Backbone:
């Protein structure tokens, strides 16, 4: 088993190293065949492992690969924990990665950095696998930062573009803010449990439930709350939750394949995965769960709203991703971890599909990304059109599609939850359904239907993309449609995840959701009359009305509510505050400390000041030694007088 | 061990240096090859130090002991333990790279240049290997001379100001240490450092001695606020000088804390630990902000060094706060080990970064960030390596830069969560100043004609940086051997530093 797991991890790594360091020798074909082969091996083996775990041929694996170091009795290791949760993630990651690898052959066809790109995405696959397969916090953090590194490299892949290198620095730094909290969370875990190994930490967790810590004097905090909040800061960075979401829309500066792989399907879900993995800790702190719930709900609704005013096709999908990550976070906050991971899985398929479809459109449009200059593409790109339609229906949760089951489960779970913030969250996710449908079909109609608004030159060259592009679309469309129906019952209500997720009985909302019926058919029937379905249909209808039936109305409405439009277009002014207030303040502080503290105070006053003082002192002393006899005689007389005077006074 | 290994490591490079001087500048080819040969031989000779090292004991190993100045019972007394051995290896390793890096670059008086580095190598090995306080002091001060010459002769425009500042700062600090050492000799009748460890002292004497040591070591590390000599020295020093300065000389301050301050004055260390911890945290946060706004690449890396060395001193002094807060010593060893690894790792990473700046400087004769932009277009291999070292400098897991910071942050949470909070800001600040520099230098369109004309790394440069990259990666992926070597020594050290002398 260990050899299999090592192969899963190392195959993409080896391929990446070869393609990266010896790209010139292996050539373009060599690079893509090699990396595709590596990821394919990982995918096949991951599937084998998952199947083995599900049918019971294999037992969950938890063992050390090698000892990284032992310090102060703390054993720090690289090791794997592969249970049904991590195996599911492995399959999702390697499958989407494989699709993206194939797709890249078409998308990056003319790029001079071809080999470099393949090397990066394989390195990403390695890092992501290390993250999900970790059995301890050290390796989790390694994978966590490694995916951040590759994300940095890939967002800035076209490193001559000013926007790209701004975006990648921003992404790395914002993620580092999250990692800052995450690392402190790991330190807190070690402090309370004395170990970094998951199993040992979870075993020790119940014992620390009653411990408190005074972070601010006089205000004791429950130790689990502190740990979970710190860890969640990490999740907020990686999974782009408000207010650490600002990097994700900008990350669209990277090539589209990685937007699908990293910034939609896998890396950004690392935070969701981590919280689910840490469910034995989060279950100890209702406070932390409430925070998770409220942050997730805020992200789900308010980031979705921003999708309504975006005109860049990739940015619409990016804001949609933010919003959907919010849904997953809401599920975690409501203790419906299984629903969160379920949505993570379905979302990985349909969102990767939508991104790749957007990429196909971008190829067809000669790298035009503005949806206002598209329209009517369904005639030219039928495969892209139909797959995008399936992806969009999955995204808005149309009954029967995968997104329907996962999103409805979340909404129902929040409805059943009673922790503080659940009411707010429920309202947010419900309105969010309408918003999702509206922005999704706004984009869909503007791109594929209506009048053809592109220029003649582009129109003349419009054609369906090549097979390496469309095949992944089709292969992703299949699970986007069927996976929900197939997997819902075992994942949400059965023992799919086994012991990997822990929910305390008083917050078991999924059990409440399933109390009336657990089979997908029941859900489907129930869903057809429930508010989310009606809201989604309303969203599609409004999109049709505004963007196809009465295209003149949308600008009029925007004009009428210009202040709302302004807020949305400016993305709630997060970027403004960061770039016009925070960044300059930091630089000013640095300048102030340097110019005043270092240069004027320490160097100016103390170092050079003391040198000047010695210079001045010696100048004074030099004057005393003038060489004139009468000066010395005078000094002698003064000295004599002084001494006599002193003797007299004393005597 | 019969063979005088440590003496070899001290005197081989010194004799080699003199030999190089004798060969002179006219046969510069021979000069270079001799210098390379000597440095490689010294490195090879230092390998048994690691391979033959007994990992189960805290006792001194490879000991050599002979009387030197009998009248004052000064001895020629050498030996290494798990703390000094890795630093000697670092010295011999980095010196080889510095010799290779200076190969064609140094055209002015090459024999003196290489001789200075070889002699300095021997002297630095002497500092780490000395177990006699007076011998230690002799090496400690002797080290200043070659560095003074290196900056003064091969330095930049303001080299005289920089050398004077460097010399006076470090010299003033050291003088106080000399007073403390003589006092300890007069009280204990011996210059043996081990004897100092066991000699009982009152709190008042301890505080005075501690302050004297602190002055000497704080200047060397350097700690805030006695750090301002470092940016000037780095900016003016030639590349090789910067590398040795950052990689080895700063480590002597950290080493001094472990060898002298903590075990000789444990009660004073306990009383004044807040001072060192406070200054360390200031170094991490304050200097992080200062580094952000530098426009000179060398200055930026110099400030980054100060911030990184803040982790070293922080890790070393955590034990007392941990004991006060938790009532146990768990975590104290981790703090010190983290500090030690940070020293070794910083030696590699900052050395590499200074070499990278040197590569650019040799081509463009500018260290100004604003003179660059888009270097990746013309120097792709260089850019890849620079990004790698920048990531290591920002503490990316998998590189050595992560290990020390990680351990120190974990340990400092035990002492006080706020310490960990302030120390962890380096995750953000370190990434900000390093990657912002990378962005402005490496990425973007080709900024000007000078950048357009740049040529990528020569084989020699690629070799030096490649070797460093592999070391950084290796230490980051598998620090276990280093931790294993240090373990018993640091366990013993924690015992010494928490044993009251009152």
Residues:
């Amino acid at each position: 088993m260990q050899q299999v797991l090592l192969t899963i991890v190392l195959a993409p790594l080896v391929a990446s190293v070869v393609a990266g360091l010896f790209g010139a020798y292996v050539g373009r074909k060599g690079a893509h065949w090699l990396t595709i082969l590596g990821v394919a091996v990982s995918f096949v083996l991951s599937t084998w492992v998952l199947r083995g775990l599900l049918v019971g041929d294999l037992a969950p694996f938890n063992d050390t690969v090698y000892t990284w170091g032992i310090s102060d009795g703390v054993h720090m290791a690289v090791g794997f924990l592969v249970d049904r949760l991590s195996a599911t993630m492995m399959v999702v990651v390697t499958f989407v990665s494989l699709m993206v690898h194939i797709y890249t052959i078409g998308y990056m066809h003319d790029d001079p950095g071809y080999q470099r790109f393949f090397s990066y995405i394989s390195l990403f696959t390695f890092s992501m696998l290390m993250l999900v397969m970790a059995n301890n916090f050290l390796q989790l953090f390694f994978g966590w930062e490694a995916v951040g590194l590759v994300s940095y490299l890939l967002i800035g892949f076209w490193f001559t573009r000013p926007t790209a290198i701004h975006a990648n620095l921003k992404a790395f730094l914002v993620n580092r803010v999250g990692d800052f909290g995450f690392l402190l969370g790991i330190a807190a875990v070690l402090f309370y449990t004395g170990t970094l190994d998951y199993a040992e930490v979870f075993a020790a967790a119940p014992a620390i439930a009653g411990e408190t810590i005074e972070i601010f004097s006089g205000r004791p905090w429950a130790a689990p709350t502190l740990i979970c909040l710190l860890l969640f800061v990490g999740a907020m960075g990686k999974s782009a939750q408000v207010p650490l979401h600002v990097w994700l829309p900008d990350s669209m500066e990277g090539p589209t394949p990685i937007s699908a792989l990293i910034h939609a399907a896998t890396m950004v879900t690392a935070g969701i995965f981590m919280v689910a993995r840490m469910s034995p800790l989060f279950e100890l702190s209702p406070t932390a769960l409430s925070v998770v719930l409220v942050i997730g709900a805020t992200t789900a609704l308010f980031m979705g709203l921003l999708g309504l005013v975006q005109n860049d096709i990739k940015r619409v999908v990016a804001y949609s991703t933010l919003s959907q990550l919010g849904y997953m976070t809401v599920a975690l906050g409501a203790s419906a971890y299984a629903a969160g991971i379920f949505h993570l899985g379905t979302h990985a398929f349909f969102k990767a599909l939508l991104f790749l479809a957007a990429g196909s459109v971008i190829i067809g449009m000669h790298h035009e990304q503005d949806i206002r200059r598209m329209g009517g593409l369904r005639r030219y790109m039928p495969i892209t059109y139909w797959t995008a339609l399936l992806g969009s229906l999955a995204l808005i949760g149309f009954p029967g599609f995968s997104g329907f089951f996962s999103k409805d489960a979340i909404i129902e779970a929040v409805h059943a939850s009673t922790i503080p913030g659940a009411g707010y969250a429920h309202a947010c996710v419900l309105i969010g359904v309408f918003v999702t449908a509206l922005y999704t079909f706004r984009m869909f109609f503007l791109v594929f239907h209506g009048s053809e608004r592109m220029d003649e030159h582009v129109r003349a060259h419009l054609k369906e993309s090549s097979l390496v592009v469309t095949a992944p679309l089709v292969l992703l469309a299949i699970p986007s449609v069927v996976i929900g129906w197939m997997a819902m019952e075992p994942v949400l209500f059965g023992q799919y995840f086994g012991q990997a997720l822990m929910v305390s009985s008083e917050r078991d909302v999924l059990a409440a959701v399933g109390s009336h019926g657990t089979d997908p058919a029941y859900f489907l029937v129930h869903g057809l009359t429930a508010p989310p379905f009606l809201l989604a249909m309303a969203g599609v209808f409004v999109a049709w009305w505004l963007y196809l039936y009465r295209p003149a109305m949308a600008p009029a409405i925007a004009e009428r509510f210009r202040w709302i439009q302004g807020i949305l277009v400016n993305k709630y002014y997060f970027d403004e505050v960061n770039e016009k207030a925070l960044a300059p303040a930091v630089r000013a502080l640095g300048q102030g400390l340097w110019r005043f503290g270092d240069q004027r105070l320490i160097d100016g006053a103390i170092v050079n000041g003391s040198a000047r003082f010695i210079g001045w002192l010696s100048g004074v002393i030099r004057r005393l030694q003038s060489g004139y006899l009468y000066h010395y005689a005078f000094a002698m007389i003064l000295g004599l007088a002084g001494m006599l005077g002193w003797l007299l006074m004393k005597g | 061990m019969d063979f005088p290994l440590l003496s070899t490591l001290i005197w081989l490079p010194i004799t080699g240096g003199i030999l190089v001087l004798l060969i002179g500048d006219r046969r510069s080819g021979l000069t270079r090859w001799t210098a390379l040969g000597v440095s490689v031989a010294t490195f090879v000779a230092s390998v048994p130090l690691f391979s033959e090292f007994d990992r189960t004991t805290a006792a001194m190993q490879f000991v050599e002991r002979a009387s030197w100045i009998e009248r004052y019972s000064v001895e020629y007394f050498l030996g290494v333990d798990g703390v000094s051995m890795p630093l000697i290896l670092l010295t011999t390793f980095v010196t080889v790279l510095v010799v290779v890096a200076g190969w064609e670059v140094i055209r002015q008086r090459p024999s003196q240049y290489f001789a200075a580095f070889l002699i300095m190598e021997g002297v630095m090995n002497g500092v780490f290997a000395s177990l006699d306080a007076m011998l230690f002091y002799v090496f400690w001060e002797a080290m200043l001379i070659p560095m003074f010459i290196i900056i003064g002769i091969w330095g930049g425009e303001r080299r005289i100001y920089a050398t004077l500042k460097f010399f006076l700062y470090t010299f003033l600090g050291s003088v106080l240490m000399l007073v403390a050492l003589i006092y300890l000799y007069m009280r204990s009748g011996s210059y043996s450092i081990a004897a100092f460890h066991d000699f009982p002292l009152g709190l008042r004497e301890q505080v005075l001695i501690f302050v004297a040591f602190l002055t000497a070591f704080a200047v060397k590390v350097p700690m805030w606020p006695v750090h301002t000599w470092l940016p000037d020295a780095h900016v003016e020093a030639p590349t090789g000088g910067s590398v040795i300065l950052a990689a080895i000389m700063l480590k002597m301050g950290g080493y001094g804390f472990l060898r002298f301050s903590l075990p000789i004055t444990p009660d004073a260390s306990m009383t004044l630990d807040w001072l060192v911890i406070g200054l360390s945290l200031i170094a991490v946060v304050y200097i992080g902000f200062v580094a952000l706004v530098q426009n000179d690449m060398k200055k930026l890396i110099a400030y980054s060094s100060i911030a990184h060395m803040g982790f070293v001193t922080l890790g070393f002094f955590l034990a007392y706060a941990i004991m006060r807060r938790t009532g146990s010593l768990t975590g104290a060893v981790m703090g010190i080990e983290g500090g030690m690894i940070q020293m070794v790792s910083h030696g590699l990473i900052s050395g590499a970064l200074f070499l990278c700046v040197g590569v650019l400087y040799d081509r463009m004769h500018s260290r100004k960030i604003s003179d660059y932009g888009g270097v990746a277009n013309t120097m792709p291999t260089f850019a890849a390596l620079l990004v790698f070292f920048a990531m290591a400098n920002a503490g990316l897991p998998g590189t050595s830069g992560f290990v020390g910071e990680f351990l120190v942050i974990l340990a400092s949470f035990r002492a006080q969560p706020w310490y960990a909070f302030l120390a962890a800001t380096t995750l953000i600040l370190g990434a900000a100043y390093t990657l912002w520099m990378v962005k402005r230098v490496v990425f973007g369109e080709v900024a000007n004609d000078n950048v357009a004309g740049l040529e990528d790394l020569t084989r020699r440069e690629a070799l030096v940086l490649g070797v460093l990259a592999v070391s950084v990666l290796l230490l980051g992926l598998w620090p276990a051997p280093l931790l294993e070597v240090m373990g018993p020594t640091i366990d013993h050290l924690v015992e010494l530093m928490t044993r009251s002398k009152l």
Summary: The beta strands of chain A are 61-71, 74-82, 212-216, 219-222. The two ends of chain A are 100 Å apart (CA to CA). Chain A has 27 helices and four strands.
